[in-house]
Write a structure and sequence with these properties.
The protein is α/β, with parallel strands linked by helices. It has 3 domains: 81 residues, Outer Surface Protein A, domain 3; 37 residues, no CATH class; 224 residues, NAD(P)-binding Rossmann-like Domain (Rossmann fold, 3-Layer(aba) Sandwich). The protein is built from 13 helices and 13 strands. The strands form 3 sheets. A 7-stranded mixed beta sheet has the order 7-6-8-9-10-11-12. The longest helix is centred in the last third of the chain and has 19 residues. 38% of the residues are buried.
Length: 377
């Protein structure tokens, strides 16, 4: 082990014997009492030295190896210490891609706070390289989601859409102005290739393409995310593919639900529940979906679309990293001009084809908040 105090946690002294790692209540860890020798030893934990060498340096501070082991173990248990050599072969391969790793260091720092075990951040960032995500839609929301996922290290991001890029599709972080007039699929491939740190992973000649880890449904027509197509959902659930909805309809941004096939409410559950509450809903939907009712240019505020894309990408990455984001089985909505995000659960429906009503998967995970005193453990 090469102990390293996590660079993402800022360090400050509360008094002469108390040091705090981290600023926010979610991350803050308080260590006390810290004598001068221990304070000097903390400066040695920079990840460049293994424990045997640290034992030798500690002796010069009148610290015994047992004291070093106890301190490192407590700091590690508190999530303050990382190991830049941990994470396994995939993490080693990522470290060898210095250009890609330099681009991803801010993401690595963030992951080190969310996954506190030594090597956990590097291991998850390396795992993203082997994942494949499909984004359906190349409008202001979909293209931005694709570029964020690719830029955050997801190895393969496929973007599906038809037609050609229009001026209204252009967005910061999404399709550029020079793409206007190009085929949407072609422009999206260029965007993903340019955004991926170090370029997409090279596949061997005989390598099988990776299976889909997630589908992000971000159609240019907002109605198709507010009232998603149940036929598509049935195919994805049958194939066991998790999928997340995101988009803008009129002046409302929508993120979710993240559907875990057979475990959480899906598009079918959403439709059946809405129809039970409002029997006239199917008639309204049929009229809105008719060719006469679809507007030539759907409303899609740029700032709102960017906020939706960012939140959806963050939820997608959390899921790919092994967590269950708040959109699991729930839909988050925010409307202009207040932009007050609110959650609307998508309850599994007993009449739905997905079978989620008889399952309990997809439970939310809760986080802890507040400073922790590592020395009191």
């Amino acid at each position: 082990m090469h102990p390293m105090l996590k660079p993402a946690l800022r360090r400050a002294w509360r008094d002469r014997q108390t040091v705090q790692f981290g600023i926010t209540p979610t991350q803050a860890v308080v260590v006390s009492p810290v004598d001068p020798a221990t304070g000097n030893f903390l400066e040695l934990l920079d990840g460049t030295q293994g424990l045997p060498f640290l034992y030798e340096r500690a002796r010069g501070l009148n610290m015994q190896p047992a004291q070093v082991d106890e301190l490192v173990q407590r700091l590690t248990a508190a999530g303050v210490v990382d190991d830049p050599t941990a994470g396994g072969p995939a993490a080693d391969a990522l470290r060898n891609r210095t250009g890609a790793l330099e681009r991803l260091r801010p993401d690595l720092a963030s992951l080190s706070l969310i996954h506190p075990e030594p090597g956990g951040a590097t291991g998850r960032l390396a795992a993203r390289r082997a994942m494949r995500v499909q984004v359906r839609g190349t409008g202001r929301v979909g293209a931005t989601i694709a570029s964020v996922l690719a830029g955050a290290g997801v190895g393969q991001v496929d973007v599906l859409d038809g037609g050609v890029v229009r001026p209204g599709d252009v967005a910061p972080g999404g399709l550029p102005e020079r793409a206007v007039g190009e085929r949407r699929a072609t422009a999206a491939r260029h965007l993903v290739r340019q955004t991926t740190p170090g370029g997409p992973p090279r596949q061997g000649r005989d390598a099988e393409p990776a299976g889909l880890s997630l589908i992000v449904v971000a159609p240019r027509e907002g109605l198709d995310v507010y009232a998603p197509n149940t036929a598509d959902a049935e195919d994805w659930i049958g194939a066991g593919i998790p999928h997340l909805y995101a988009g803008v309809v009129e002046a409302t941004g929508v993120v979710g639900p993240l559907v875990l096939p057979g475990g959480t409410g899906c598009a079918g559950c959403l439709s059946l529940g809405r129809t039970e509450r409002d029997p006239g809903w199917p008639r309204l939907l049929a009229q809105w979906r008719s060719g006469r009712q679809r507007s030539a240019v759907p409303a899609c505020d740029l700032a709102l679309a960017t906020a939706v894309a960012g939140l959806a990408a963050a939820h997608a990455l959390a899921f790919l990293d092994g967590d269950l984001p708040a959109s699991t089985g729930s839909r988050w909505e925010a409307s202009l001009p207040q932009l007050d995000w609110r959650s609307r659960p998508v309850e599994p429906h007993r009449g739905c084809f997905c079978g989620a009503a008889g399952n309990t998967r997809g439970e939310q995970v809760s986080g802890a908040a507040g400073p922790q005193d590592t020395m009191a453990r």
